[in-house]
Structures are given as structure tokens and as C-alpha cells.
Amino acid sequence: MKEDYKIERVKERINYIEDVLASVAAGDIDARINSEVEDDLSGIEAAIDLLIDDLTDELKQRKKMQKEVEEKLAKIQEQQKTIFQQQSDLLELSSPVSKVWDNVLILPVIGTLDSQRTQIMMENLLEKIVETGCTISILDITGVPTVDTQVANHLLKTVTAARLLGTECIISGISPAIAQTIVHLGIDLSSINTKATLQDAMIYAMKQNQLSENVKLHSLFADSDENEE
Amino acid sequence: MLQLTTDSNWTELGKYIIKTEHDIVQVRQLIRVHAKEMNMGIIDQTRVTTAVSELLRNMYNYGGGGEVLVETGVVDDKNALIITCADEGSGIEDLDLAMSDGYTSGMGMGYGLPGAKRLVDRFEIKSEKNIGTTVRVMKWR
């Protein structure tokens, strides 16, 4: 009888261990066996409690780390937003068109020309051409490190659009390395007026100005001559 | 991705992913740095950078992005900078046509691939319909 009772007792305790393990598995990390008896089985029970402790610590640590990661992620997303914002601001800022002389506009291009930027650049330039009535614009590409077919295509389109508005477009600042590369690529830029430096382009623009000035004076005198007769 | 034959004596300098237009600019700048580190002159640097730029654009525009592998090694007794661009796009149907000047399937000028070929010392291309395109260019040093 005594043996039977002992076996019953052990069975109960094992069942209880199972219950505790089940509740831990279900997420109740505070569940423990906390055996009050001292015998062969209590060693196992204590060991299981220890394991649950370790697991709980791990879980807590993981939750903490997860929270940190989430916080960092939110921060990064916030920063990314700022970067996008600044990028679009930069796009606006990076295509300044300024009138530098009678009739002469300058558009310095620095960095890379992607389709979005070219679009903004072209819009700015065309608007300014209409606004100022300038007949010469200089596109300075000294600050463009790589001219591939897409960039060349964009430049060609910009020049063509400016020409449609009656403005002559000069491209300046083509480095020797870029000149060679363009030739090897097989791009034909001969339809565009190009100059090596911004200075050359300015001199050319002023000469053109002088010419048109002379033509104006000439027609003015021609008019007054007619009047005298 | 389509693989081209490689040599065991080549060492990898870098591997990059192209997903956005911004990646093109970044990888292009890195290629220039690699070329500079190999003591290439400014003209060769510009050539190889521009050639790679064409390939990256094709990858981005037609292949939906892809992978770039930069290596250095000895090819035909010459030190070479080796750049392999691979995408998993729809592939090029007629390679001869794609390699001819002035032909474009999109909005470009049609000088990308043939131009890139003229800018480098060796040019290999492999393309299969619906599997993708892999292009490898080499520049001697």
C-alpha cells in the first residue's frame, strides 16, 4: 500500500511538472515548480526551475533588444524621410539659372544628371529664357564627372528645347577625358556649339552680343536715313 | 543568372547590387575608385566608368536591376580590371542588332552597348530570352 501511495505521489508531481512546462510554453514565464520536498525528484524539479529562469532571462533580453531595434528602425525611417525631403530640396537648388550679362544666361551643372534632375534643369532654363528674353545660354558641365549616352541625350534635348525658344545654347567645360569618351561612345554633338571652358563660352557670347548690337544700330540708322529722305 | 567563364587567379574587389537610379551613381563612383587604385590614368578611369555606366543603365532600365562584380586579375598576360554586370531581365533577342550603332529598343540614343564596347579592351556578352543578360568588360592596366 505504501509503495502504491508513493507511486501515486510521484505521478502527481510529474503531472505538475508537465503542467508547469505547459504553462511556460504557453507564455506564462512566471510559472515555477517550487518543490517543497527533498528527495531524488526534487533535484530534477530544481533543475527545470533553473532552466525556466534562464529561458525567462533570455526572453526578457530578447524583448528588450527587439524594442531597441524597433526604436532604431523608427529613427532610421525618420532620417530617411529627412533625406528624401532634402534630396528634393537639393534638386530645386541644384539647377540655378542666372543672368550674368546682357542677353546671357548661365546654368552651371554640378554632379550627376539623372532624368529627374534634367527635367527640372530644363524647366528652369526654359522659364528663365522666356522671362529674361536672353538669346544666349551657357550650360557649363565642368562639375559633371561622367557623361554617358543618357546624359548626352539629356543635354541634346535641353539644347534643342532652348533653340526652339530662339536661344542659342553653348555647352562649356568639357574635359579632355570626357571629350575622348564622347567620341568613343559614338555620340554626335557636332550640332551643338561647345567650348572648352566657361571663359571661352563667355567670350563667344559677348562677341555674339556685339554682333547683334551692331545689327540693331545698323537697322536704326537705316530707319533714320529713310526718314530724312 | 547567366554565368561567364571565370579564372581562379582573379581576386574579387567588390560586389554591388543595382536597384535604384541612385545605385548607378554610387557604383559608378566606386568603379572609378577601383580604377584609380589600379593606377589607371584619368582618361582610362573615365572610359571604364562611362562604359560601366552604360551597362548599369541598361540593367536598370531593361533588366530591372542586377548585380555587379568587380575583379582584378591577369588576362592574356595583362593586368586587368574586370567588371561583370548580370541581370535577370527579359534578355536581348537580337544581340547583333543590340550591338549596332543607333539601334535602341527604348528611349535611348542607341549608342550604349556599342559605345561601351569601344571604351574597353575586352567585351563579352551573353543573353538568353527570359533568363537575363550578363555583360563583362575588361580594361588593361
N-to-C span of chain A? 149 Å
Beta-strand residue fraction of chain A? 5-15%
| Unreliable parts of chain A | none
* Strand segment tally of chain A: 5
CATH architecture designation of chain B? 2-Layer Sandwich
The proportion of residues in beta strands of chain B is 25-35%
Helix content estimate of chain A: 55-70%
Quaternary state reads heterodimer
Number of domains of chain A: 2
CATH domain class of the largest domain in chain A: Alpha Beta
Give the overall form of chain A.
rod-shaped
Q: Give the mean pLDDT of chain B.
A: 91
Summarize the main sheet of chain A.
5 strands, mixed
- The number of helical elements of chain A comes to 6
Topology, number of strands of chain B: 5
- The CATH topology assignment of chain B is Heat Shock Protein 90
Corresponding CATH superfamily of chain B? Histidine kinase-like ATPase, C-terminal domain
Domain tally of chain B: 1
Which fold name fills CATH's third level, the topology of the largest domain in chain A?
A: Transcription Regulator spoIIAA
Main β-sheet description of chain B = 5 strands, antiparallel
Keywords:
heterodimer; A: 229 residues; alpha/beta; Transcription Regulator spoIIAA; 2 domains; 6 helices; B: 141 residues; alpha+beta; Heat Shock Protein 90; five-stranded antiparallel beta sheet; 5 strands; globular
